Amino acid sequence: MPSLGNLAAVPRTAWLALVLAAAACPANALAERLLCPGTDISVSYSDAADADSACQAAAYSIAFLESNGYTRGGGFEMQIVDRLPPENIPHSLGSLDHRNQQIRVLSFAEVSRGQKSILGLPADRELYRSLISHEVAHLIAFRNFSFDGPTMVAQEYIAGVTQIATLPPELRQVILTLYPGEGFRSTAAINLTLFLFDPHFFAVQAYRHFSRPENGATFLRALLLVRDLVSD
Fold first, then answer.
1. pTM (two decimals)
2. Mean pLDDT score of the chain
3. Are 100 and 107 in contact (CB under 8 A)?
4. Above 70 in pLDDT, residue 120?
5. Over the stretch 131-185, which tens digit does the pLDDT of each residue have?
6. CA-to-CA distance for 79 and 45, rounded, in angstroms?
7. DSSP H helices in the chain
8. Cα-Cα-Cα-Cα dihedral of 41, 42, 43, 44, to 10°?
9. Domain topology for 27-225
10. Residue ranges per domain, the chain?
11. Which CA distances in Å does 82 have to 29, 55, 124, 136?
12. Helices (H), strands (E): how many in the chain?
């Protein structure tokens, strides 16, 4: 970029291009960084409310998964951004970089601006926190699988159950009413086609399946140990 002293010599079209390029820079380029209180989990953010949501989400997800036999496996980083990397699935709201063990989630402002839904409802702070809980669950699960290359179905089952389970009870009931059903009746029913067709419905049915006494923590742990328990 030209120095300030040379800007007067820049043609108008080039100057406009420079302004547009600067405007296109991700908002999180100037983000602040927070260490979640009492943890080794960090958040890069532009809005302090988003950082609070991220820290709460991490705490809720970790507590839920640890209560079901998972281990946290050390600290990690979360980034609240206005854009996800281009390699992500279109319309994604969050992602996990497995290589760098780094979570990225769209800012609440960006989610709200695009009128994007979370679990089929207009985004609010509780639903936004659940979105981050979902991504944290992906990271914790990734650290706990006993084998390489777990199926997408296994990963999304764990993340979906965690997202629903960590909602406030009254909001969870709203979601369950919005997506009626009995939950998966067999592992064969837990399939990639259903997830790709309707990820929200998949998450709710996974939670219903998990909630049955014969499944619960036993099934969540089995997903980490048995490669072909569910398949894509």
1. 0.85
2. 87
3. no
4. yes
5. 999 999 999 999 999 999 999 999 999 999 999 999 999 999 999 999 999 999 9
6. 6
7. 12-24, 48-67, 108-113, 125-144, 152-165, 169-178, 192-197, 199-211, 216-225
8. -160
9. Neutral Protease; domain 2 (1.10.390)
10. 27-225
11. 10, 18, 17, 18
12. 9, 7
